[in-house]
Design goal:
Order of helices and strands: HHHHHHHHHHHH
Structural class: mainly alpha
Amino acid sequence: MAITETVEQAGAPGSGATSRRRAGQALTWLGIAPFLIFALLFLILPTLQLMVGALQDAQGHFTLNNIARLFTDDILGAYWISFKVSFVSAAGGALIGLLLALAAIQGGLPGWIRPTLMTFSGVASNFAGVPLAFAFLATLGRIGLLTALLRQYLDFDLYGTGFSILSFTGLTLTYLYFQIPLMVLIVAPAIDGMKAEWREACESLGGGTWYFWWHVALPILFPSILGSALLLFANAFGAVATAYALTGSSLNIVPILLFAQIRGDVLHDQNLGYALALGMIVVTGLSNAGYIWLRSRAERGVA
């Protein structure tokens, strides 16, 4: 009897620790519950609905016709234009954003430059949709402010050169407004991770500035740069509000074609719209997967 009481008393502290640990885990799961619910309702379930709808006809019967129609000339052309807009805006945004981040972080500029740039980048990277389209129309439209100033003071007709804000060039230029600051925010931590000792070691071995950047800094930053460019590509490929508000139906890209199939009166084919959305999910998913893989490589390389 005494032995049993001794064992129970010895096990009591362990039982209490286990209970506290389980209570802590329950509180942890409760803390992330809103995120899990949000992801389930607005990401996982809609994606599953798209997958099911893409494999059904209007009567709800199984079919692969919607997937096959993605390979018609019109839809392939829309995907090709979307690829071009996304690639050019991602490449331009990555290059300009990288140079801005390097100048602000490594360029020896006044201290107020970096926080100002980061604050602006945080705001501008989320400035999209109808407000951004209106801003560019008011600035670079046919009667926009900059267009009028160029015509009045420099006698330069911007639209006489063939430029149009409603064209491929205009949409790409508009996308750069949020692509560049997004690149600044993404690549800044990688630049911060570069150690001053690397430059000092390079200089002590006789390497100059260009040698350091080409043979040391760029190989280290390359996974982060490429991964960031992939994320910018996915960001541009999935953008719909800005493109629709700016160009309407004058530019045949996938998000606008999808919108026409889901909400249009003439081209209404909801299941084809599901298939178009599924194709976009595949493209953006691959881009994001590439970004995550390259980011993990960059983190291991810096560490």
